[in-house]
Amino acid sequence: MTDVIVVGAGVVGIATALQLRQAGLDVLLLDSGAPAAGTSSGNAGAFAVSEVLPLAEPGVLRKVPGWMLDPLGPLAVRWRHLPGLLPWLARFVAASRPSRVSALSRQLAGLLGRVNGDVAALLGDAPPAGMWRRWGALAVYPDEASLRRDLPRWEERGRLGVRWEACDPRRVEREEPALRMPWRHAVAIPDWSHVDDPYLFSLGLFERFTAAGGRFRQEAVAELTGPDGAVDGVRLASGEALRAGNVIVTAGVWSDRQARQVGQRLPLESERGYNLTLPKAGLTLRRYLLNAAESFVILPMANGGLRLAGTVELASRDAAPDFRRSHILLDKAQAMLGPLDTTGMTAWMGNRPSVPDTVPVIGPSASRRNLYFATGHGHLGLTLAATTGALLRDHLTGGAPVPEALWPTRY
Fold first, then answer.
1. Cα Dmax for the chain
2. What's the CA gap between 393 and 406, in Å, rounded?
């Protein structure tokens, strides 16, 4: 019998499996697809440690009509999917109460404040540590007025432990000369970091897992198994039963399939993210860039490549992609950086698992012993992967338990 079965081989599942294997547990990782081939393959590559403020904020309800009317805006809701989204949106609005936002921000700050330490401990000096770029980031604005309007949010982040510093245009030009005017008003975030290629980074973690004796099978899980009140393994789509002392579901937005089997309520929806990858952009950036005014980011990739990523679309996870949301990023990026080489450019969309209160779900099931969930990370999957794995490792090996505020019992 296996000590732990981890269901889902995205970056959260891989990092969790690696943490558990490094702690000496026998771990089997399962996924119907190849490792890191889903949403983890196309993310924005950031360890976004400054994202301590939840997506829901006071006054969010009055913004919903605008999201429905602007399909290419930074946050959009496809109106035809609104009926199915209403329960999630109701919880989202409820999470925007000032007292709730304050509590959620503290929870996010507690998680994000330990990210760099958890990543460093997981990677050590072994590959893929060489891909981790601790160069900081610049959140840029088109003018001083825009920067000043956003300073209260940065001050709130500062109260939650985020290090930041407003920069004048001369300093911005020194730190990132590729930025054109007027995009030379910025906030420097020294603790932000990124990886050159999130897919190769995640695959590197997977290779460390298997090199350490971890096992992987590319097979779909049909159901969880076990007597009433407990889970003792899984049944594969092939009909084969696999037994385990514990099962951890890290299947992203599809984690609710296993949750429904055991009567566990998980309000998961797809926070659909879009990107454009320009492998031969012909521009080398010194810093990761966040366009704070237009809600997208620019990831410096290896060999002069760039990834333009961002925007949030709420729609069914099965809805066809609207790649206009990807291509609109090119014009925005060229306004900041000048003409970019689009040779070999590709567009991508991924289903990021999102819960209404932004804080991920990590911890034991409310309905079955020996069953755990790690999902709902939204746009913080890569950021919180090592931390999620560390929390579950400690919980399962007799260390500090996962804080109850993260458990699925909150739903």
1. 66
2. 15
Position 370 pLDDT exceeds 80? yes
The CATH number of residue 405's host domain is 3.50.50.60
Taking the CA of residue 40 as centre, how many other CA atoms within 13 Å lie in the half-sphere pointing to its CB? Answer: 31
**Do the domain assignments include residue 335?**
no
For 247, the 3-state DSSP assignment is: strand
More confident residue, 312 or 384: 384
Q: How many domains does the chain have?
A: 1
Least confident range from 7-11, 38-42, 80-84, 134-138: namely 80-84
Dihedral, CA of residue 233, residue 8, residue 268 and residue 316, to nearest 10? -120
pLDDT digits (tens, 9 = 90+) for 276-314: 999 999 899 999 999 998 889 999 998 889 999 987 788
Radius of gyration over alpha carbons of the chain, in Å?
21
In a domain, 65, yes or no: no
Query: Would residue 50 count as lying in a domain?
Result: yes
Angle between helices 198-211 and 381-396 (to 10 degrees): 20
**What's the token pair of residue 222?**
């049909």
Q: Residues 205, 11: contact at Cβ < 8 Å?
A: yes
Q: How far apart are CA 57 and CA 196, in angstroms?
A: 32
Q: If you ran DSSP here, which 8-state letter would residue 96 be given?
A: T
